[in-house]
Amino acid sequence: MKKNEPLTKIMSTGLQTIHDGEPVSKLRKMFEEGGIHHVPVVSGEKLIGVISWSDFARISFGEFGNQTSKSLDQTLDHMYKIHDVMVTDCVTIEKSGTIREAARLLGSHSFHALPVVEGDKLVGIVTSTDLIRYLADL
């Protein structure tokens, strides 16, 4: 791997985000329909948290089993708020960072998505899948 390849080469910028005040059912639909595994939580353009599919699965399937989507959405919205599910102490990387820096961060933690920021503004995301695809194309 080239030591100083820019992070912007592999980061995704067309992000699906959610705001803290939105219903948890919207999050469920984003995961189900969007084919995504990580959703940044924002306030305006500022990153305030991240929710992974596994974070969401802990609250939505263990307790509620075989409900219909409508029933599940009503239960989720009644019992939880976005801030109950999100991780707030996110590790991030600056947009000016390198692919190598992202690889080190992803490799030294147990998460698979790294929000990319400029200051506190969310500008993208890099996932372990992005990194694997990059390495496969070398």
From TrEMBL:
Key words, A-Z: CBS domain
Start and end residues of each CBS domain: 11-68, 86-138
InterPro entries linked: CBS_dom, CBS_dom_sf, Diverse_CBS-Domain
Keyword Ligase: no
Highest taxon of the lineage: Bacteria
Record's signal peptide: none
Protein name as catalogued: Inosine 5'-monophosphate dehydrogenase
